[in-house]
Structures are given as structure tokens and as C-alpha cells.
Design a protein that fits this description.
This protein has four helices and two strands. It is of the alpha+beta class. It has one domain.
Length: 101
């Protein structure tokens, strides 16, 4: 395939905004990777760009979770609501007696 054909194909690969919004893991700060898996078929996957490969698995999971939360807060800020007094009491009851290092 020629360089110009590759550039043209790259420009044609564009998903509608609704596709990105329905899949918040594909937000701008994540690396999106396209892998050709068969003629005419491509697998699109995402990897958090903030994950440090030298960190242990637990940190990578936490960073991925925090990136997901950030994406959700960016996409749907109207869903962020203050915690109620009743919720605070329920949380306190759940963690009563738990010791923290």
C-alpha cells in the first residue's frame, strides 16, 4: 500500500462522537490502538496512557480505575452530587472498627 493510500485510510477512520461517548474508556487521555486481525477487520482497544509500566499490577489497576472515574466525571458532570448525611452515616457504620495503618 502506498504512503498516500495509508494517509487517506487514516483520515477516513473516524468514529461518530456518540461512539466515543458511549465508551468512556476511549477518552482523549487514553492511547487508542488499532490492530488488523483479518482482511477487512480491525480490533480497536484502549490502554490508559497514565499507567507506568514499571509500577506493580495493583497500581496499574488503581490508575485505570481513577482514569475511568475522571472520564465519567468529564462526560457526565451532572451526575456528581454531594453525599447526604444518611449516606455518611451508612459509610461510617460499614467501616466501624476497621483499623487503618
Amino acid at each position: 500500500m502506498s504512503d498516500s493510500a495509508i494517509r487517506e485510510a487514516e483520515q477516513r477512520f473516524n468514529l461518530a462522537p456518540t461512539a466515543w461517548k458511549s465508551q468512556p474508556q476511549f477518552v482523549i487521555f487514553w492511547e487508542v490502538k488499532a490492530t488488523m486481525i483479518a482482511p477487512g477487520q480491525m480490533l480497536v482497544s484502549s490502554v490508559p496512557s497514565i499507567v507506568d509500566e514499571s509500577s506493580d499490577q495493583e497500581d496499574q489497576v488503581m490508575l485505570s480505575f481513577l482514569a475511568f472515574l475522571e472520564a465519567q466525571m468529564t462526560i457526565n458532570p451532572e451526575l456528581i452530587t454531594p453525599i447526604s448525611e444518611a449516606e455518611m452515616q451508612a459509610i461510617a457504620a460499614l467501616v466501624e472498627g476497621v483499623e487503618v495503618d
